[in-house]
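Researcher: Here's a chain I'd like modeled. Treat it as a single chain, no partners, no ligands.
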Amino acid sequence: MEKSCIILSGGLDSTTLLYDIVEQFGNENVFAISFNYNQNHSKEIYFAEKTCKKLNVNHQIIDLSSISYQIFNSALLKGAKEVPEGHYQDEVMKKTVVPNRNMVLLSIAASFCISNGINNLYYGAHSGDHTIYPDCRPEFIKAMKEVLLLCDWQSIELKVPYMNWNKADIVRRGKELGVDYSLTWTCYKGQELACGKCGSCIERLEAFNKNNLIDPIKYE
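Model: Modeled as a single isolated chain. Structure tokens:
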């Protein structure tokens, strides 16, 4: 059976997708990689580890912290100004863009796949990200699919199954899969409890509400 790799942030979207591909292919052929790029919310990596242990999935953490400040400028990095609050549709939320992050992470993940004989690369971009994050747009995904088919003699197939879903759709799928959402972290602030005020928290809470579910994590 072909091997698959997922970029696992530890957030709601990628965690649901991990459960999804494990159900389809089994955990022995699934690999997860997480990235430390000095994000405020680096505790998401802790939850990614917890989920991989729960599902018995091979997990690698790739450390970009030594170069992140040289290549990224964003309110999401440690030491940056305060993370903006409000809905994703608000103009201020564009401060949370990490420039070209997904291309960087996908490129590194592709190298990992090639080195380990992995054919399929998954990431959890969805339609709710399109208006804020340019590297989640369908046009970007289409272009990256073409690039990853050509980047090496071993073709990598990029798979983004939630591209046309919103977060409520993802939570609905997660409920079907029995995802343990208590082992996810969504808040952009790296505090003890989720703030409930940043765009990421608001979107998460709305997704649970639309499914008549209670979010199992604690908020301030």
